[in-house]
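Hi R.,

Here's the chain you asked about this morning:
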Amino acid sequence: MTATGNGPLAGVRVVELAGIGPGPFAAMLLADLGADVVRVDRPGGAGLNIDPAYDLTNRNKRSVLIDLKAEDGPGQVLDLVERADVLIEGYRPGVAERLGVGPQECHARNPRLVYGRMTGWGQEGPLAQRAGHDIAYIAITGTLGMIGKADEPPAVPANLVGDYAGGSLYLVIGVLAALQHARTDGGSGQIVDAAIVDGAAHLATMIHGMMAAGGWQDRRGANLLDGGCPFYGNYETADGEYMAVGALEQQFYNEFIELLGIKGEAPARKDFARWDELRAAVAARFRTRTREEWTAVFEGSDACVAPVLSLGEAPSHPHLAARGTFLDHGGITQPAPAPRFSATPGSVYRGPAQPGADTAEVARDWDLPGLTGLTGLAKEDDR
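And here is the predicted structure, written out as tokens:
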């Protein structure tokens, strides 16, 4: 089986110390772009009760099984590190050091290594040693408090805003920037401290600017982009489905109310005192037809209206199907690699890595004849 893809990161070697959530997703993104990602799995698993065959965040990777608690476990990881460009770990601060694979040990073996650290709270600060999950990280940044209706608890955006947007993507940005630095003349490796609290806060930069300028109220459901605006939100249809409306600009709004059929009865969009009345008119009109019928009405228009699809429905949408936004690999429908490159496109070339299944292959390709898969039990309190 092909070791790596032909993406823009072909030739880049990554060691991933197995974890859960944003670390594996970041490593998957690097693998999707062509990097040779070797995942170091520990005996007993990484903590998620998921059949490895369906863990898509491990696609395009290879796996070796090493017990870091065993006497020669850290040495085997450092042998990999010596031949790698990047390492990714998602332990609590200090754990990698205690295991003997911290930045100091790794840089002693490979001074140009980019050492990527993925945590929720960061490497320092009063909460650095505390347990946590996505929802808590985005809660203290103010990001969670922005999402949802004014008279309801904040809406939970799955783990997309924290783990993956504020975590994984910022780790990947940091790793690629540090890799560029390491490959310049006189460049060196360094540590990338990617904390979900930092990334999630950074995502709201524009909103902070709007708030400082008086254009954003510090409460949810009261602003242009958070559902407070009657022409930027979701509306129920006759069949219990939803249509998403984003008709912010005047020309798009004009087309929206005309196709919706309320042009002559809708209050002026700039009459904020009548926004509740406008919202009620829009909602009442949407409830007169099904989602499919409204989709047909707005098809081909610039009204900025789209059907709200489920995860299962999305791959069949004509636009996504035409672009190949989703693909089937190994019998699993999944998102295709993103973004796209004209000369070095990414691809899905391997299914999810099975723990320890690629030890012999990695030993050959990385010139590590002494690499062996170890057995034993690993504690799960180091995440």
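One quick note: Confidence is low (pLDDT under 50) at residues 375-383.

Cheers,
M.
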